[in-house]
Amino acid sequence: MLALTIYISFAGALLLALMPKATPALARAVALVTALAGFSVALLGFFSPASSAFIADCAWIPSLGIRYTLAADGISRVLVLLTGLAAVSGVLFSWNIARRTSEFFAFFLALIGGVYGVFLSADLFLLFVFYEIAIVPKYFLIAIWGSTRREYAAMKLALYSFLGSAMVLVGLLAAYAVSGGHSMNLQALAQYPFPVAFQMWAFPLVFVGFAILAGMWPFHTWAPTGHVAAPTAASMLLAGVVMKLGAYGCLRVAMTLFPHGLDPWGWSFLGIGSWRMVFALFAVIGIVYGAAVALVQNDFKFVIGYSSVSHMGLVLLGLMTLSQIGLDGAVLQMFSHGILAGLLFATVGRIVYERAHTRDLDALSRMHLGKSMPFAAWLFVLAGMASMGLPGFSGFIAELQVLIGAWTAFPWFAAVAGVGIVVGVAYTWRAMQRAFFTDAPAPSAAPHTPDASEHSFEPITWAEKAGVLLLLAASLAVGLYPRLLLDAITPAVLALPHTLLTGGRL
Amino acid sequence: MNLDAIHQLFAITLPESILEIASILILVVDLGFFRTPARRAAHAARMTTASVLGVLGCLASLAWLIAHPATASVMDGALVATPVVAAAQAGILALTALVLVLGLTSRFTRNPGEYVALVLLSTTGMMLVAAARDLLLIFVALELLSLSLYVLAAFSKSSPRSAEAALKYYLFGGMSAAFLLFGFSYLYGIAGTTSLVGIAAALATGTTPLALVALVLVAVGLGFKVAVVPFHLWAPDTYQGAPAPVAALIASGSKVASFAVLIAVTAALIPSPGWTEVLLAMAAASILLGNLAALVQTSVRRLLAYSAIAHAGYMLLGISAHSPQSNQAVLLYALTYALTTVGAFAVVAIVERQSGHDRFSPDRPGSDRPGSDRLDAFAGLSARNPILAGTLLLFLLSLAGIPPLVGFWVKFNLFAAVLQSPSAHTWSLAAVILAVAASAVSLYYYLQVLKRAYVLPPAHPEPIPVSFVEMTVLVLIALATLALGLAPNLLVQWIPIG
After folding, report:
1. Cα–Cα distance for residue pair B49/A452, rounded to 1 Å
2. Residue A366: Cβ within 10 Å count
3. Where are the domains of chain B?
4. Measured between beta carbons, which residues in chain B are less than 8 angstroms from residue A169?
5. Sign of the CA dihedral running B121, B123, B124, B125
6. Which residues of chain A lie closer than 8 angstroms to B422, CB-CB?
7. Residue A123, Cα to own-chain centre: how many angstroms?
8. Owning domain of residue A335
9. With contact defined as beta carbons under 8 Å apart, do A63 and A23 qualify?
10. Distance (Å, rounded) from C-alpha A482 to C-alpha B353?
11. Total domain count for chain A?
12. Which residue of B has its CA nearest to A171?
């Protein structure tokens, strides 16, 4: 049944592409109905009991042994649910797109369809097809409807993504050829005993290829520029689900196919003796670096953009722990960050920027938004708290699990990552303080010039309220009752190759 | 040669004969029916008549080819008919028909009869090239193909660009034909036979240094035909200057035929050491230079020319692997690439025509308002004609190898076949890595065109008119790139391995 999410999204995209002259209202309605339909299917599929259901399986290209196979285990179901949430809230927060509306939603839904497809594919060729389908709409979403340096950011994002997918393609082609060219099925290939020497170069190739999209330091630079330039809905999707595509690929493809790529090299340099240590180090650097850079940004959206790099570092660190609790945490953090990054981008990019017309923290600090836009202020306080890991929201339990896992695997890295989380508190407070709660009056402003605080901003629309409610509710639900997701995630994690759960061979 | 053999020869060359008859018929109609000055001035009617007759000729030939699948060889194996050859020939015929249909409204020539007749003649050459398995026949067929194309490239008599294109094409072509003939004479000297089978047998028994010289000379000749580095210099100028339908023909049917013959020649030369290395070196150089040079082009036709060089590199990589699977993959690649390129050239031609209208006042009559194929001419295409922009989007993304379009699947199939071929070694892996990385680079320049079409505002707001026939054919080609990408099986079943 979950396969319907893919078809519904592409059908909606096609419908919108075929009616370029449609009025914005109609296009919005079509997009919302499509996104809601996809979300309902995702929700139903999530709560359906079948734990590892094969959804579809039929011959596609028999000459190459490629089949059209869709399957969903707990991890897939969680991420499909996240995609559904992101799709609906993305449409709600794009309610004000007035230029080329139907084209916008066509690209938007095509991207969503590709993302659903990646999370559900059980055949690597199919997975790769969906993965690349998701690249092109991103380019146009940013280049046409974006803001700051949009053409540069869009091209950078497209090239980074395509370069990453080229690396993945080389790895997949090599794996396909080495295993005899009979099948691209994920399970079948995962059971093929690839030579360890082969895994040693194929694993980092595929892992980095996917991790580029997950925003792994030092390949993260597309992320902040892309997030800042993108229109709000696209930022929400980029941070919310597209970065998860990368992390999902790391886990589902690179680590599952080539578990021995994580084995020690047999020699070590500065204590780094395996690809596992290398990527864990990159992840930790990403956590601290992203948080530190977010601390000094003056563009509100850049703060959120770099915080995404930091939070995705936690996901990658969780993956590298190679323990059940760490992997659980990584998947949970994917979900949590998807929701919270979406919420933050919506607050900054849509609710504040569309009214104040600036994202500059200095300029915002003179507007006294805390008084003139209390909804946005409270929303940012909540979302910021949740994002820095306040218990009760989804971020807390995810970060806790990742850190526990990391503590057993590499205590030093866990300690440094903890520092990164503290810096996370700092940049969130700083941004919150400067954007919403500065007391300082406008400097040297003559008493009769219209003060920014007297601005009356447009009221918050119902679409914004609905989107906020949806995302906050999801984060709270998972935060208060994490078993909601963990009951689905844990069995799927336990079904991963054994070496991924037992700390590998360190 | 007894009567039986002659009968058989006629039987397997009937599709070519149909084309010849059609081309003569076109000349007769154009010179006979449109004899009076008043009728001769009716360019549109003459073009339509000639093109329709040409398309009918192609379709008749195609129908015969499909209705009579044969496996035969005549004249001691000089000319063969196999399902693979038939598939290549059918592809060539279909491509020519598409080029003719899409050229219906072009106004570059005052001699439409001769134009269509020459197109059919060159198509005959392409079909013979694909079927020839004998050095002499290969050379003669290649010359028939090339000479017709030289003339066609110069067909826009009032355009200096067209003359330049033809002259460059001709000079490079003539030179490379000389090299090819020289190489063939050495091969004949070594093997004592002109048949490819005989040459393969002779080279397998032991090689002489002379063979290496022959290989290099043959590589020069055939490298020119498929436009690979370092024999590519004619391609950008010819693609840019030749009339759009002719450029499309050079980029499509001629490519398919040249790759078909390259596969056959490789089968003969593979026993000799050095041939694989020569092919790999040319492939790597083409992939690198084609993709890098395309990055900085501002003329879309030149951009397509450099991208063609890069694609020729990918296909050469497949040829160097030389397994039945990789040969099939190369043919699939060549055919689908050619189909996509024909579509892309048609869009470029339409945009060019419109940019001529944009620059000159619409009330100025006349047929030869020079258009521009510069990137800027594509600005705002999606606002001016969304369907046209949509087809361009599909064509270019397919060329870039984005799924689910057919360009991705043929690339995957080709690279997988290269890695799986029994002769695969470290160099093949390195070359595949280079090719995949380079195709990531290629997305940049395709996106440069698409950025103009979708992101930038139009310089001239009025919509671009496109005739019903052109639009239908373009949409059909675009749907084909999508459908073949979604269901590649249709292609695989059509072209057998072997």
Report:
1. 73
2. 18
3. 274-360+370-498
4. 412, 436
5. positive
6. none
7. 22
8. 3-443+450-500
9. no
10. 63
11. 1
12. B433
pTM of the model: 0.92
List chain B pLDDT tens, one digit each, 498 residues: 678 888 888 888 899 999 999 999 999 998 888 888 887 778 888 889 999 999 999 999 999 998 988 888 888 888 988 888 999 999 999 999 999 999 888 888 888 889 999 999 999 999 999 999 999 999 999 999 999 999 999 988 888 888 999 999 999 999 999 999 999 999 999 888 999 999 988 888 877 888 888 889 999 999 998 999 889 999 999 999 999 999 999 999 999 999 999 999 998 888 788 888 889 999 999 999 999 999 999 999 999 999 999 999 999 999 998 888 899 999 999 999 999 999 999 999 999 888 877 665 544 444 445 677 888 889 888 888 989 999 999 999 999 998 889 999 999 999 999 988 888 777 888 899 999 999 888 999 999 999 999 988 888 888 888 889 999 999 999 999 999 999 888 888 877 765
CB within 8 Å: A163 and B437:
yes
Tell me if A505 is assigned to some domain.
no
Rounded to 10 degrees, the C-alpha dihedral B102/B227/A165/A167 comes to 170
Burial readout B150-164 (b: 16 or more C-beta within 10 A, e: otherwise): bbbbbbbeebeebeb
* A258 lies in some domain: yes
> Cα B321 from chain centroid?
22
From A64, A125, A159, residue closest to B443, measured CB to CB: A159
A67 is a domain residue:
yes
Whether A172 maps to a domain, the answer reads: yes
Kindly state the DSSP code that residue A391 receives in the 8-state scheme: B
C-alpha count within 13 angstroms, C-beta hemisphere, residue A190: 19
**Rounded to an integer, what distance in angstroms lies between the CA atom of residue B100 and that of residue B243?**
12
State both tokens at A104: 């916008």
What is the rounded distance in angstroms from the CA atom of residue A292 to the CA atom of residue A306? 9
Are A185 and A61 within 8 A, CB to CB? no
Say yes or no: A390 contacts chain B, CB-CB below 8 A: no
Of A17, A125, A136, Cβ closest to residue B402: A136
